[in-house]
Write a structure and sequence with these properties.
By secondary structure, the chain is an all-beta fold. The mean pLDDT is 96. Strands 2, 4, 5, 6, 9, 10 and 11 form a seven-stranded mixed sheet that branches. A four-stranded antiparallel sheet has the order 1-3-8-7, with no helix packed on it. It is 0% helix and 54% strand.
Length: 114
């Protein structure tokens, strides 16, 4: 079974940085498009960033220029570098891969204080 394990969340002040990691197992990671989503209280889960097998990326408008998604195929890991964090970035962040089904990690909490 596909397994995605996120890490790196925490509490940070506005303007600070965090780096999230997602380790994937039991998939052919190198050909998978990986994504980061987030869900704030009372809101729907939304796409933050995606990276294709070839390294092409796309970002939600409100994180462009602040967040960077990257991948290390040798480690089966995808990263989300988050800079200039804002209180509105507070959410649970989830790693995602869509194969025969949509697979999700357990999520990692990011809290940005003002």
């Amino acid at each position: 079974q596909v397994r995605l394990v996120e890490s790196g969340g925490g509490l940070v002040q506005a303007g600070g940085s965090l780096r999230l990691s997602c380790a994937a197992s039991r998939i052919i990671f190198s050909i998978a498009t990986m994504g980061w989503y987030r869900q704030a209280p009372g809101k729907q889960r939304e796409l933050v960033a995606q990276i294709s097998s070839g390294g092409m990326t796309n970002y939600a408008d409100d994180v462009k220029g602040r967040f960077t998604i990257s991948r290390d195929n040798a480690k089966n890991t995808v990263y989300l570098q988050m800079n200039s964090l804002k209180p509105e970035d507070t959410a649970v962040y989830y790693c995602n891969v869509n194969l025969d089904f949509a697979y999700w990690g357990q999520g990692t909490q990011v809290t940005v204080s003002s």
